[in-house]
Amino acid sequence: MKKIEIIKPDDFHVHLRQDELLELTVGHCSESFCRAIVMPNTIPPIASVETINEYKEKIEFFNSEFKPLMTFKLLKSLTADDIIAMQEAGALAGKLYPAGSTTNSSDGIKDWREIAHLLTVMSDVGLVLSIHGEDPSVFSLDREKAFIPQILEISGEFPQLKIVFEHLSSAEGIAAVENGPENLVGTITVQHLLLTLDDIIGGSLNPHSFCKPVLKRPEDRDAIERVVLKGNRKFFFGSDSAPHKITNKENSCGSAGCYTSPVALPLLVDFFDKQDKIELLEGFVSHYGADFYGLEYNREKITLVKESWKVPDEYSGVKSLYAGKTIDWKIG
Ligand SMILES: [Zn+2]
Questions:
Q1: Cα(97) to centroid of ligand 1, in Å?
Q2: Catalytic residue among 10, 220, 240, 270
Q3: Strands 184-188 and 235-237
Q4: Is 240 labeled as catalytic in the residue annotation?
Q5: I need a labelling partner for 49 at 20 to 30 A (CA). Which of 95, 141, 291, 309 fits?
Q6: What is the pLDDT of residue 107?
């Protein structure tokens, strides 16, 4: 039987949600990942020392070995002192959500200049700026492309600021990071690496593949695949795993977000194996992101085994990506 052992990975972009979903998400995330950059778009948002500490404690309650890497949501109301206090409380990154771009983002930022003074502080103290790079005012397939000028403006204005263009979904987004400054990197999800818009609307409607930014054309997926298979260190794994209850997905006003924590690592090893590039998996999931964030590599290892399994139809009222389908690799 084919198997490999790698450093247990990190997930550099995850939505663990809250309340009754938290036990499920922490359980699945910690099976595959030692650490995860935890997104702050909860209700209320994570945007203070108190909310950071409280959320971290709730996550660690379900698995004390798992290391949540905390972030805060950039709000106009924050001050420079708030930013420094949140870093002292352990936050590694601040997340910029353009207003109206995704789940719980109506309190987001309309123009990055509104928070330029906060970005100055983040740059000075070495906090990472994490960006949901979409302009919600334009046609859905073009939203990421339309946001690129703003990302380049920010990185031009703050040349020392470390910036992550999250969940890249377009050939233009990939090119912007690839050709951009050294401190501009991008995360890649498993759904944007493997799927296209046809996996949502090409046959009958599949709401469980629907996320923001929406899956795009084959040529966009090919661009993502190309940089991953080159082992380009500017691109690393962030699942953007974002569960919603089945009732909120299979709905006339269905929520955006794919739940991938239980399937992402098996799908990734399968992808690299089928491309005959399995040696590139460990860099993508366990090295490049840690290098960018200035973190030590994890000491723990994980074994992945080439053995087929059927993804359950649901996990406690949540359907994951590939639910009911067979994946050829599993966690050993
Ligand atoms: Zn996200």
A1: 10
A2: 240
A3: parallel
A4: yes
A5: 291
A6: 85
d(CA 322, CA 260): 9
Domain coordinates of the chain in residue numbers? 10-300
Which residues on adjacent β-strands are paired with residue 265? none
CA distance 105 to 114: 16
Look up residue 257 and give its amino acid.
G
Q: How far apart are CA 85 and CA 55, in angstroms?
A: 16
* Contact of 264 with 241, CB cutoff 8 Å: yes
CATH class assigned to 10-300 = alpha beta
State the pLDDT confidence band at 306, using cuts at 50, 70 and 90. very high
CA distance 332 to 330: 6
**Contact, 309 vs 330, CB < 8 A?**
yes
Distance 40 CA to ligand 1 centre (A): 9
- Looking at residue 108, its pLDDT comes to 87
* Residue 41 half-sphere exposure toward CB, CA atoms < 13 A: 26
User: Over the stretch 89-137, which tens digit does the pLDDT of each residue have?
Assistant: 999 999 999 988 777 888 889 999 999 999 999 999 999 999 999 999 9
Contact 295, 35 (CB under 8 A): yes
Write down the pLDDT at residue 73: 97
Measured CA distances, 89 to 70, 85, 96, 247 (Å):
9, 6, 19, 36
Q: Which of 159, 193, 161 is nearest to 174 (CA)?
A: 193
